[in-house]
Write a structure and sequence with these properties.
With 276 residues, the protein is mostly beta strands. It has one domain: Beta-galactosidase, Chain A, domain 5 (Distorted Sandwich). The chain has 1 helix and 23 strands. The model has no long low-confidence stretch (mean pLDDT 98). The structure holds 6-O-phosphono-beta-D-tagatofuranose. The site of 6-O-phosphono-beta-D-tagatofuranose has 11 residues, from strand 20 and strand 21. GO terms for molecular function: carbohydrate binding; glucose-6-phosphate 1-epimerase activity.
Length: 276
């Protein structure tokens, strides 16, 4: 592994082994790239992404914590929480059974947060939160790994695994609906928070002729998002045509699935990406 100067001069940890290559920016502990051997990058990073302190990176795997989306009561607070816009501490990299794991930490009040990325047969990601406060205290938080998956053409992509699952439709004021038996298809903006599901999702990409599985553990919510044309145009750090090239499948604990942690307790939420 190596610590290199990445885009915008930001420090990036680069992991290389027989399984492939992965890179993680210390900024937001954002995974920027995951290239299994003989595969194109599984992740999408915007060609117009901004790489600078205090700015969220458009793409890869931003970490949403301690809230998802806009803050519940204070509209002045940043979208998707506070930790994706700050540099995390690099604890170190260790090797085990041919896999490389990098560990990064940060702190949010009484919550100590650690993020581990493992480059092995899959790309493993694990977010651990510990409540270090005084006994009797408790904190409620949301969290999500906001994974941008690269696709050849979103119009032909489908997502399976969420059939018959309830979701909040972000395009209709978080109206509660249920996914039918059909896979998710993309014919316009899609922005749904699926709830109470531990299911593995699979993104099927006929253009790249591959499927990407998103397994998860300790996560009860899955968000599926594509901005489509209008929203992509409104996002300054996304090229106007970029909506065609990614689908976000985000594993987390959101809304009804928010986490309550008492002093001394730990929570672990993990996801693993694999190409099939
Ligand atoms: O995960 C979907 C979502 O909440 C969308 O509503 C959209 O806002 C997206 O996240 C990107 O949010 P960001 O704050 O990174 O622009």
């Amino acid at each position: 592994y190596s610590l290199i100067e990445g885009p915008g001069g930001l420090p990036v940890v680069s992991l290389v082994n027989d399984h492939g290559v992965a890179s993680i920016a210390l900024q937001g502990a954002t995974v920027l790239s995951y290239r299994p051997s003989d595969e194109a990058d599984v992740l999408y990073v915007s060609e117009s992404a901004v790489f600078s302190d205090g700015q969220p990176i458009r793409g890869g795997v931003p970490i949403c914590f301690p809230w998802f989306g806009s803050h519940g009561t204070d509209a002045g607070k940043p979208s998707h929480g506070t930790v994706r816009t700050r540099a995390w501490e690099l604890v170190g990299v260790h090797e085990h059974n041919g896999a490389l794991t990098v560990r990064l930490t940060t702190r949010e009040g009484v919550l100590a947060v650690a993020f581990e990325v493992t480059l092995g047969p899959r790309l493993g990601m694990s977010l651990e939160v510990e409540h270090t406060g005084r006994s009797g205290e408790s904190e409620v938080f949301e969290a999500a790994l906001h994974t941008y998956l690269s696709v050849g053409d979103v119009s032909g992509a489908t997502v399976t695994g969420l059939e018959q699952t309830d979701y909040l439709d972000q395009l209709e004021g978080r109206r509660r609906l249920t996914q039918g038996d059909d896979p998710i298809v993309f014919e316009g903006e899609v922005d749904r928070i699926y709830l109470n599901t531990s299911a593995t999702c699979v993104l099927h990409d006929p253009v790249f002729e591959r499927s990407v599985a998103v397994d998860k553990d300790g996560s009860r919510s899955t968000v599926v998002w594509n901005p489509w044309i209008e929203k992509a145009r409104r996002l300054a750090d996304l090229p106007d045509d970029a909506w065609q090239r990614f689908v976000c499948i985000e594993t987390g604990n959101i809304a009804d699935n928010a986490v309550t942690l008492r002093a001394g307790e730990r929570h672990r939420m993990a996801a693993a990406l694999s190409v099939q």
